[in-house]
Specification:
Radius of gyration: 22 Å
Largest sheet: 7 strands, mixed
Order of helices and strands: EHEHEEEHEEHHHHEHHEEHHEEEEHH
Structural class: alpha+beta
Strand order of the largest sheet: 10-9-11-13-14-8-12
Number of strands: 14
Number of helices: 13
Distance between the termini: 70 Å
InterPro entries: CAT-like_dom_sf, Condensation_dom
Protein name: Condensation domain-containing protein
Helix content: 25-40%
Domain Condensation: 34-339
């Protein structure tokens, strides 16, 4: 049995529209994958049963997405029968290796209209199940959703996950109900407020920086590097504790100054990714909730001290997040009317290191970070993309278009990030202008002294 289609949620619709013009061969690059280690003695039957329970609990895992004359809709199928679980025989030593193995079953684009937009896999070694892997189209899940699915899957398979056990005691919210709530009278009233925000934003956004050309993110070719720095993580914790500057805002303020130097334009448009998980009942739904939230920052009028600049950035970011859930079709029409072309976004910033200010420094916090060049899984998307991850070495991942930033200069930029965060812990009232000069010198491959 299939439930009659209802409109997509705003998050689902954003994924649908953003990816519409991307080559189908590139879609798998955007898929999310999560893997969990199976406890000893967990047989394949239990793994299949765990995936089945997960599918029953979360409608996203049994939803097809189809286009109609009235726009795209989601159609939820029942959960009868066992799910299809692929098997990959591979000896792996880490969860990351298991995730890569399971992801192989999603190398080809998933047909959202004909299939449920996810893949289940069990990784075996000599026939013994070692890991369970789930891969989803981004329209099904975001980073939070994948974390919830992994926790529940661990508990369902008999593993140790207090978080997963807690989730299993709750009745999860569902995307269909969210979509209907967003289109209710109260939802429409809020949508009117969001459009007023966008009108004000367009009045302030420079036409030469927003929207970026439609094809700016669609040409393949990206480079990537990662800064791993317990020292920077420890410094951010000090800044948060002693000076009241949020780690999210410190790194966003740094990124905005770097973009101003890279683009040789004091007025920069940063794109935040709003999680839109700010309160019940929808904050725990398994679905794609992220949406782009652009914000304008005029670095040419930055206050004298960097701490003051961080606080200005914080105020602007909070407003962007506040209006980060919206009907992308309504916003698209508004931007087209004002600018003559569809919205286009660049200079992304996504902060996920929420553990920075919540734990003690780790070993190595007195040593400079190290920069590693990595191969980006995604070869399309924004020309400049910063993602800050959680963990003891707080990976700062920057993916860039080599036409904007060479590999050597990307290494230099991340080294500058590390040095400036460390300096800020000792000098929160340091000069913003001096910081910009050091950034420019780093990107020119010379000393600022």
């Amino acid at each position: 049995m299939t439930v009659d289609g209802v409109p997509l949620t705003f998050g689902q619709l954003s994924v649908w529209r953003v990816m519409t013009d991307w080559p189908h061969s590139r879609w798998p690059e955007t898929y999310l994958t999560g893997a969990v280690e199976l406890p000893p003695g967990c047989g394949e039957d239990r793994v299949v049963a765990a995936f089945g329970a997960l599918r029953r609990r979360h409608e996203s895992l049994r939803t097809r997405f189809t286009d109609t004359a009235d726009g795209p809709v989601q159609r939820v199928d029942d959960a009868l029968g066992d799910p299809v679980v692929g098997q990959v025989e591979r000896q792996v030593s880490t969860v990351e290796e298991a995730a890569a193995a399971g992801r192989e079953l999603a190398r080809e684009r998933i047909d959202r209209a004909r299939e449920h937009a996810c893949r289940f896999a069990v990784v075996t070694s000599a026939g013994r199940p070692t890991h369970a892997v789930i891969t989803t189209d981004h329209i099904v899940a975001d980073g939070f959703s994948m974390g919830r699915l992994r926790a529940e899957l661990t508990a369902l398979a008999g593993g140790d996950s207090p978080e997963g056990s807690r989730w299993l005691e709750e009745e999860p919210p569902q995307p269909r109900a969210l979509a209907l709530a967003q289109r209710s009278a109260a939802g429409r009233a809020r949508g009117d407020g969001v459009l007023r925000h966008w009108r004000d934003l367009l009045a302030a956004l420079p036409p030469d920086t927003f929207p970026v050309p439609d094809d700016a993110g669609g040409s393949p070719g990206r480079i990537e590097a990662v800064l791993r720095s317990p020292r920077a993580r420890a410094a951010l914790a000090v800044v948060a504790r002693e000076h009241g500057l949020a780690p999210h805002d410190v790194l966003l303020a740094l990124a905005s100054l770097a973009v101003a130097v890279l683009e040789e334009n004091a007025r920069v448009v940063m794109t935040l990714q709003s999680s839109n998980r700010f309160g019940p009942p929808w904050h725990t739904v398994v679905s794609s909730m992220n949406q782009y939230a652009p914000m304008l920052l005029d670095t040419g009028t930055a206050p004298g001290t960097f701490g003051e600049w961080v606080r200005r950035v914080q105020r602007t970011a909070l407003k962007a997040y506040r209006f980060g859930s919206y009907d992308i079709d309504a916003v698209d029409a508004l931007v087209r009317e004002d600018r003559g072309r569809a919205p286009g976004y660049d200079n992304f910033y996504n902060f996920l290191a929420h553990d920075v200010a919540q734990s003690a420094p780790v070993p190595g916090a007195d040593r400079a970070g190290r920069v590693e060049r990595t191969r980006p899984h995604r070869q399309i998307g924004p020309r400049f993309d910063v993602k800050v991850l959680g963990g003891p070495d707080m990976p700062v991942v920057v993916r860039a278009d080599p036409a904007l930033l060479s590999a050597d200069r990307l290494d230099d930029l991340l080294t500058w990030f590390d040095e400036e965060v460390h300096r800020l812990a000792a000098e929160p009232s340091g000069s913003t202008a001096a910081l910009v000069r050091r950034c420019r010198s780093a990107l020119e491959g010379r000393s600022a002294d």
